[in-house]
């Protein structure tokens, strides 16, 4: 991407020099310390970017709104100064609503993003209608929706089968040399 950008801007940057190259990883998990005194983190700063998808605009906006509502309530509509305990109420409510979403996506990433074979199993799993419905509903409502226990068991068995099959295929492919 940088090379293509430099090529397009070649005539404008000719003779220039790179002063500094910076990058920072996307914070894909809520930060362990999100409030200190009368300061609190919201959005990306709080680590409210979801794993697997990298989505976060909804959670950024929602956390900001929830924090603002906690400040208004804690300040008695501006009649007193908020304290850390007032801000912690926002964190407790945010975690209550969205912690399961972050946990499920964390587990999915740990299981399916560790190897090419695991990613292939993930692709196979995503072809299932039940997985697509659960994914769509969870994305739509921004929460882990409760599933059908029987379908969840079938999904678990199929997922384990996909992981075993993908791992076996990977081993066979490693034997093949071109």
Automatic annotation (TrEMBL):
List the GO cellular component terms: chloroplast thylakoid membrane
What is the name of the protein in this document? Geranylgeranyl reductase
The biological process GO terms on file are: chlorophyll biosynthetic process
Molecular function terms from GO:
geranylgeranyl reductase activity
**What is the top-level taxon of the source organism?**
Eukaryota
What the entry lists under PANTHER family is as follows: GERANYLGERANYL DIPHOSPHATE REDUCTASE, GERANYLGERANYL DIPHOSPHATE REDUCTASE, CHLOROPLASTIC
Show the InterPro entries listed in the entry. FAD/NAD-bd_sf, Geranylgeranyl_reductase
């Amino acid at each position: 991407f940088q090379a293509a950008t430099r090529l397009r801007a070649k005539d404008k940057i000719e003779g220039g020099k790179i002063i500094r190259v910076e990058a920072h990883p996307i914070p894909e998990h809520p930060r362990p310390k999100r409030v200190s005194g009368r300061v609190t983190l919201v959005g990306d700063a709080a680590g409210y970017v979801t794993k697997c998808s990298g989505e976060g605009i909804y959670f950024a906006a929602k956390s900001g709104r929830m924090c603002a509502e906690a400040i208004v309530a804690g300040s008695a509509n501006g009649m007193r100064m908020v304290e850390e305990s007032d801000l912690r109420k926002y964190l407790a409510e945010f975690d209550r609503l969205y912690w399961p979403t972050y946990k499920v996506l964390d587990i999915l990433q740990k299981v399916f993003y560790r190897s090419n074979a695991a990613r292939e199993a993930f692709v196979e799993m995503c072809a299932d209608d039940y997985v697509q419905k659960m994914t769509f509903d969870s994305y739509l409502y921004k929460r882990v929706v409760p599933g059908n226990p029987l379908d969840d068991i079938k999904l678990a068995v199929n997922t384990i089968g996909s992981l075993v099959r993908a791992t076996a295929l990977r081993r066979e492919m490693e034997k093949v040399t071109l």
